[in-house]
Design goal:
Largest sheet: 7 strands, mixed
Strand content: 5-15%
Shape: globular
Number of strands: 11
Oligomer: single chain
Helix content: 55-70%
Mean pLDDT: 80
Low-confidence stretches: 1-5, 39-44, 182-190, 192-197, 559-568
Distance between the termini: 82 Å
Structural class: alpha/beta
Length: about 650
Amino acid sequence: MSNIAVFAAPPRIALVGNPNCGKTALFNALTGARQKVANYPGVTVERKIGEFLSPAGSRVQIIDLPGTYSLRARSPDEEVTRDVVLGRFEHEAPPDVMVCVADATNLRLHLRLVLELKKLGRPIILALNMMDVAEARGCSVDAAALSAALGVPVVPTVAIRRHGVRGLLDQIDRSMAVMAGADGAPAAPSLAPSIAPCGWSEPSAHELRAYHQEVEAILAAALRSAGRPSLATRRIDAALLHPAIGLPFLFLVLFLMFQAVFAWAALPMDMIDTALGWVQATAGAALPDGMLKSLITDGIIAGVGSVVIFLPQILVLFFFILVLESTGYMARAAFLLDRLMGGVGLHGRAFIPLLSSFACAVPGIMAARTIENRADRLATIMIAPLMTCSARLPVYTLLIAAFVPERTVAGGMIGLQGLVMFALYAAGILSALAVAFVLKRTVFKGAREPLLMELPSYRLPGLRDLSLGLLERTRIFLARAGTIIFAIMILLWFLGTFPGAPDGATGPAIDYSFAGMLGHALAPLLAPIGFTWQIAIALVPGMAAREVAVAALGTVYALSETGDALSGSLAGVLAADWSLPTALALLAWFVFAPQCVSTLSVVKRETNSWFWMIVMLVYMTLLAYGAAFVTFQLSSALLGG
């Protein structure tokens, strides 16, 4: 019977490794759905923490640190990894054990980080990940010889297989037992806990050369066969990175992604619509007429439901982004767009933050931390919100449903509504490139740095990792709907209900409410761009959560339907109440609109400055107003709207 290591608190393990080593897949394999995402204190770097129960029954906390090639941090992400392993975060002890994850097919690149971590004097376990891929390529690594050469335990793992991490779990138990003094086992130097402050300093050029020489010596002792490069990757790259094929294929992938947002999400949206309709009808039948019934059915269910119904479309978008990342194509996309990005002065790495911004500008802005040059990073942050985030989808979908007929073009191959959606996304991309062109030649002048990045081998996405990624996005979206949007809908219902209409009033009751007063006060300012007082009301809560605009319009127009029925009914009302120029102007506004409060707060935190946050708010507001003005005036002249 094995002894269970006893700690005053659950032992903390940090997963450390290079980008593209399968570290996150290993984290998912160990923790499953028992994980949460937060931020490190004082920074916006994601902090992924999970728990698992080891085979010996120990509860272990595990941290998935951002990928880094070295402790010589060159980006905010890498700085967090360095500071966590060195114990520099206040009120956070260094990890008890570091599991360094290395790609078994590319040990030469990964072993230098292992040597740096070993020098810290903290307990280390080396997880040789992707051993199945290494064996398939004829790569043979002697784990025992590698362990002897490094002086640390070495465990082969296959994170994507059901039992591919069992050996690592057993080694963690052994390490915990040694650290806790179980079985009277003497602590090996590599596993002895170090409580002394770490005196790490950035290695000199001489030390770096020594690291490389030591890596070569270790490989000579432990690498029995280097194997061969992935033939499939070489063949795929020969086609997808071809100058004549690469960019058209990338644009085709993006085009299909936006078509799928409409096509794939239709059935689940109908199911959510039916469920929300039943909930609203049941609540309406169970509650007596009065303020409470109005609040629950017209305010909460109609408001929150009108946003929740767009969850399938958002998940389709995230599905494509996760697939692009997990297959290794995301890095190729950055490579393909490097020349295009360079034409406007952006770094090739800017593509990844900009693509992430299609889901949400917040993680997109945070992803700009991987860009080392400060001027390039700031330029990317300033244009990231111009990418069409998923929070705009409800607004786009509503207006497209109201004013764009549901038919196909190009011989029935392309949906017109999806084509319009693609055009809106393209408008955001082109405007971002134009703004970047101006910024890089005025505010952020400087020589453009070359793009240096690793192109990982292609691999099939793991179903488990995709599922966990989508589950996490679902949690975040529903938590947002259940907190921010829920609170805003209650507030908006109150503002739209009180004070009531006076005796003898002939207009709608909302005209006399606080919301009506606010809308009518803003109407003269927005009249030149064709916006009505109802739109003015919807724009205000949209600053807190952009997708609330649909729910706000539904409340303002006093509709009681929910979900897709609400969108359908609201679409019909808007088509009858608004002119086409007004609808086009609102679409133009949302292409350029200043971002929500959470995005602005992240900009402030990422840049550590109020200045850049205010600059973003001002320039995007002016862009949005100018674009809406030109669109409304031009379309009114052409269409007579």
